[in-house]
Design brief:
spermidine biosynthesis (chains A, B, C, D); Rossmann fold; globular; transferase (chains A, B, C, D); 5-stranded antiparallel beta sheet; 29% strand; homotetramer; 10 helices; Polyamine aminopropyltransferase (chains A, B, C, D); alpha/beta; spermidine synthase activity (chains A, B, C, D); 29% helix; polyamine biosynthesis (chains A, B, C, D); Spermidine Synthase, Chain: A, domain 2
Chain lengths: 306, 306, 306, 306
């Protein structure tokens, strides 16, 4: 057998009966904020990690997969994204990926938890890479839903980069039909959103498939996709939803062409081949998604692990 | 946080610093055979599981993904597979998937560990589903490499379904250039092999990429691919290697057409869309694979976790 | 570091922040009864173990310490125990120790959970060693408190051998002032009771000290004591309460004399030296016990870990 | 069941098949020194802890038990200890307890690992409480055995406060007959030593009983004793060995009298009752100790967990 060499472990429970174990070197930061337990850990396999309420959010070693997968399919599907809104996005890496696009003129990031953002600014420099100082970027510490309800601004792209909907956490009202309808209203005419949508593991497809069906009640184009993020311990799903543009209409060459036109540098995870491949889901996932009838609503929210 | 509800756990160490935790109900079977520690566990998330030397081999809930992904890409890429050889294949599920193909006339499975096969026969009926009794199937308990060295028989398809190459385990000499050359010699003119090739996680691509490069020193066509098998705790890789036929030349429709022609029933994981999608690897995986220079040889074997 | 060699573990949580880990070989038996989750595990360090609601009850390797420590201080303090009552006692080992005493004429064991007793009878023969077949023994499957309320029988010794008072468990009303008063009424004039009373660890003395003070509101003689039971993971406490006889009045020689007179064979853990030594508690334990003001009542019960 | 509320754990493996789990808040300090891995952790149940090579050494909550149990039985058994030598003693708490004695004129502490001592000085102020600055104290960073071989100084008391003898660790040559003979030669005529001697758990008495028998080949008086230190996860043993004075000759009153004469303040764990009680060992421990024939020698050392 493989013999464990660590005696300090972070146990990331994926459900009450399953978890992923990370040997840890040290606890860089730990604090209970008004909204959640935030921790920054140095792990042996994945380097520095952000953990919220005991769940891995992103790791030094593979955050590039998560953030590139979250941001670029939407950005490159849009012909010329100028105004971008981020719901959540604490680490600043979603901001970083958006700002790579030359077309972007303004990014507004609204995260409810200032303490999380500030601890990320300080302890996760490899994530934000100075993005918070970009003159195109602005950060506000508010309830993103309330902000979107009150503003009349519209955006070309809205990226929803939040943790999973747990009962006591700040995120569950950002996964409902009502919220997606609001987001739709704040999009410009060719607007696109993307979001992480939970695991695509066969054992727990409820969240992913219900988010998919809920988005379909609001958006004409909904494209679920997945990316392998090893530190998450399970295969992971995302969804792109759009008023008009369909990401599956773009082939490898077109994506590669757009990358070379719009960015200064190549990416690490995302290119034309990755773009096209990510929309292929295993047959049983497709079937379960189509069969799903659960619609998530404010009065009927969905909590993971319940 | 998610609160664990189990107090009995199987800890599957993926490396000395990382593991996947499975809450267990019971230990169905446990024995140290001449070759390895074999265990059959009932877990809470994945049902019954086969564990060899402390490593998850396949689970009731998602073994269909592993076995369909291992078997069908090779089988459907071949125009008419009649004779098939399995290296290893203890659970009998690889045999099961092969026997679904009407064209198959004979399958020889050679597994070194009779006690593993017999415990699978007894305790994993959902895996083999009676395949061992199929008149086209034969099982021998021998060193598969030695058998292939001594036989002059040839096969259309050879499936290598073995555990990972650990120092004390029975498998590491089945991952070398010399073994792949031998396998190549035992193929018919359009012959194809496939094998599981370890995780595709960014943190530990050595095995997957070295197997890829080693296969390329022997076979003209080598197609690495991946499948998400949640119970493994990490994204997982496979490789198809072929004398002539290229799996990437087949589109979704052609695969779906062959499935409907050759099988009595549809599959659960694999279809045309799955076939095409599985060969798309993330950019950083492709780059690391191409850069890999390590060739695995009998005198320079590769052990995982060392 | 010490490298763990097991990958199957029973985690015995002693509190939400502390636990004891046991490498397991197999799960011999597992069932949710009407009252509790019962499990019989074979562990690598302590052999076979009984686990109720996830908590170690007794192990093959050191159950003799627990059961001798629970039974004999009371039995040998009494001049001639004839009639004995056991509250709980599922494994049958408390019964076994009582029956060693030649003076004993009748033992009535009342355990609420027939399924626990029957699984112990079947799977823990080294515990009961046939005691259930002794003509002096009788077992009834009832609520012991209700039974004692309704009977008018009296006993020389009452042994309370139950699991810890957890909120959802069957035991918490057997730890109250009202229950101890009832027990007192069912004792003969020189009657003695003994019970396990939770850990004596400095970090969690509430249960032990509150049981002590609660007993003192009912009994004239209360003697707390402790025994080291390695499989419990923490130092463990007991209490003897008595209408008249004081165990601390008996010196080593007198206990050794009584052992040789009353038993056929010597014991493994308990003798005169053990008897005298067990009543010496560390200074800080004594101080905390005396300072404790919590009295456990039916309307104000105490739950461990709450 | 008790539900764990921590997701960061320190796993203290007591053997390859047993461990004690501590929920951790943070890693205060972590370093591989020339001799060992040193870590200072803040745990949820035991506060700050010193961990060497993955093993708990002492915790904020119960270090007073360990250090009072290690130091005072020897100190109070001696009629007037003036010169004291500490082998090891990194945390400075052994020094602290010795310096409480008014009779002490000089304490020399020789610890091989300056980095451990300095990290304790900085991060464990509650342990040393400024003892390193006491004018009677001196610390040298040397191999204590080599130092004792080369010096001709003699001491009234020698306290051996070292970690367990593991194969790769610095301590195993401080557990042999040769070392104890050397220590004996460096004692004044009424000299006494004491040391921690490993667990007294029934499952792993080898170390404790072999240390006892090895000491008996050297010293005329050897008194093994135990103390319950909850954070260690198992009952723990010590030994006092003496040229002349016998600790068991002192009754509770005499110890209490000496405490009030010699110290300015009372202790927390140790008093007359604790002193007398600690020498009572359970019967099976006594028997196994007397039967033990293993003598630990330089050429035949003993390693725990092998």
């Amino acid at each position: 057998m493989t013999e464990p060499k660590s005696y300090k472990w972070f146990l990331d429970y994926l459900s009450p009966f399953e978890g992923h174990m990370h040997g840890i070197d040290t606890v860089v930061f730990s604090k209970q904020t008004q909204f959640q337990q935030v921790e920054i850990l140095d792990t042996k396999s994945y380097g520095r990690c952000l953990v919220l309420d005991g769940k891995m959010q992103s790791s030094e070693v593979d955050e590039f997969i998560y953030h590139e997968a979250l941001v670029h399919p939407a950005m490159f599907t849009h012909p010329e994204p100028k105004k971008v809104f981020i719901v959540g996005g604490g680490e600043g890496a979603t901001l970083r990926e958006i700002l790579r696009h030359r077309s972007v003129e303004r990014v507004l990031m609204v995260d409810i938890d200032q303490e999380v953002v500030e601890s990320c600014k300080r302890h996760l420099p490899q994530w934000h890479q100075g993005s918070f100082d970009d003159p195109r970027a602005e950060v506000r510490y508010l309830d993103a839903r309330k902000y979107l309800e009150e503003t009349t601004d519209t955006y070309d792209i809205i990226i929803i980069d939040i943790s999973e909907p747990v009962e006591e956490g700040p995120a569950y009202l950002l996964y409902t039909k009502e919220f997606y309808s609001l987001v739709m209203e704040r999009l410009t005419s060719g607007g696109i959103i993307s979001l992480q949508a939970g695991t695509t593991a066969a054992t727990s497809l409820l969240n992913f498939s219900a988010v998919y069906q809920t988005l379909r009640t609001v958006f004409p184009v909904v494209s679920p996709y997945q990316a392998p993020i090893p530190s998450f311990g399970l295969p992971w799903g995302f969804a792109l939803a759009s008023k008009r543009f369909d990401p599956r209409a773009l082939d490898e060459k077109e994506i590669d062409r757009r990358i070379s036109q719009r960015l200064e540098r190549e990416l690490k995870y995302y290119d034309g081949e990755t773009h096209v491949g990510q929309f292929f889901l295993p047959k049983q996932v497709r079937i379960q998604m189509e069969k799903q009838e659960r619609i998530i609503e404010d009065n009927y929210p969905l909590f993971t692990y319940h």
